[in-house]
Amino acid sequence: MNNLKRLLTRRLQAVPNKVIILVLIIAIIGFADASYLSVEHFQNVIPPCSLTGGCEKVLTSSFSTLLGIPVSLLGAIYYLLIAIGLFSFLESKNHEVLRVTLLLTILGLLASLWFVFLQVFILHSYCVYCMGSVATSTLLFICAVVIFERYEKSLEL
Amino acid sequence: MNTKRFFFWLCFIIVIGLIVWGLIVAMNKGSGGTNLAAPAPVSVADHVLGSSTAPVTLIEYSDFQCPACETYYQLVKRLYDESSSTMRLVYRQFPLDNLLGNGQVQHPNADAAAWASEAAGVQGKFWQMHDELFANHTDWTELADPLSVFQGYATKIGLDLGRFKTDMSSSTLHDFVSAEKDEGIHLGINQTPTFFINGKVITNPQGYEQFKALIDAAATSSTQ
């Protein structure tokens, strides 16, 4: 296990800043999206029913909170952690931090799959903000896979 | 921590702080149409509560199946109960029966609920049916066929059930609901509920106190 960690960390040592900044921007977009819904929740905003539809049903459903905590807040915390991890790497070049941050994107992907399932099969309604979050967390995961794969290849050369 | 690292982290915290601050400020400004045309004047075809001489007229475009309309029902009911001397309330139909991108109707029972209220209105009991539909919102919104529930409400409020059933399927009544919605679309309405105070659209208030303040301000300005 420790060897695997060391191997992964070594492979990440040549991560270009441009790639990390791109991933950081995606994480900040996800943070803004999830924060918007969190602020709406805590300000007790009553989401109106729009002609383009769906959000009100998703945001007022029982799935919108987990043990009383709005899932949007959990999402905002997740994106913030990712952003802090990426920023921390840019600032310190600590590859262990980057490795853990990239692995965290699996959580976001799993949560996104759950939210898509809920919207398609249970609620039969779509919320543009939730789908936006699905897009950002999926992109984050893809970026993480690409980064890992890229360094896998760089080692083979 | 050296100065460069401190500056780096400070920038990060400022960016995150600005995002959160921006969202809070933007949301405090509220949402909702502010460029809508004025609705048609109140007519005999409208469902009206309160005196025609009241200084404030609150027109609501609403959909019985919309969860937000159900939430605002509680606020508007209390508002009318406490301000009936200064305001009259007008309800207009705006059922969200449109097809969504996934091929499903947004609120599949909205039309039937609107027809039920209008059918009750034919017998002079629109507001009683309006109250039943909102007060028992969760009992019918998810049903595949809510008609038997609506017939139950009709019996409960003392309607002639045979006539109610006939009126529910009347094309004249269906056309009236569609025309009212079309008028709303023509005004530029794209969400429910949408409220107009004395002909001017308002940003949906977040809570009773805010709503009451708007009504009181309109009453004051129209009596000056």
Short description:
The complex is a heterodimer of chains A (157) and B (224). Chain A has 157 residues and is mostly helical. Chain A has helices at 2-11, 17-42, 55-59, 71-92, 95-122, 128-156; strands at residues 49-50, 65-66, 69-70.
Give structural notes.
The complex is a heterodimer of chains A (157) and B (224). Chain A is mainly alpha-helical and 157 residues long. Chain A has a single domain, classed as VKOR domain (de novo design (two linked rop proteins), Up-down Bundle). Chain A has helices at 2-11, 17-42, 55-59, 71-92, 95-122, 128-156; strands spanning 49-50, 65-66, 69-70. The longest helix of chain A is centred in the C-terminal third of the chain and has 29 residues, at 128-156. The mean pLDDT of chain A is 82. Chain B has 224 residues and is of the alpha+beta class. Helix content of chain B is 54%, strand content 11%. Chain B has nine helices and six strands, in the order H-E-E-H-E-H-H-H-H-H-H-E-E-E-H. Chain B has helices spanning 3-28, 67-83, 110-122, 126-135, 137-140, 147-156, 161-168, 171-187, 208-223, and strands spanning 47-49, 56-62, 87-93, 191-192, 194-197, 200-201. In chain B, strands 1-3-2-5-6 form a five-stranded mixed sheet. The longest helix of chain B has 26 residues, at 3-28. Chain B is globular and about 85 Å long. Classes of the chains: A mainly alpha (157), B alpha+beta (224). Chain A binds chain B through residues 28, 31-32, 35-36, 39-40, 43-54, 56-57, 60, 80, 83-84, 87, 90-92, 120, 124-126, and chain B through 5, 8-9, 12, 15-16, 19-20, 23-24, 27-28, 31-32, 63, 66-69, 71-72, 96, 98, 100-102, 104, 106-107, 190-194, 204, 206-207. Strand 1 of chain A pairs antiparallel with strand 4 of chain B, so a sheet runs across the interface.
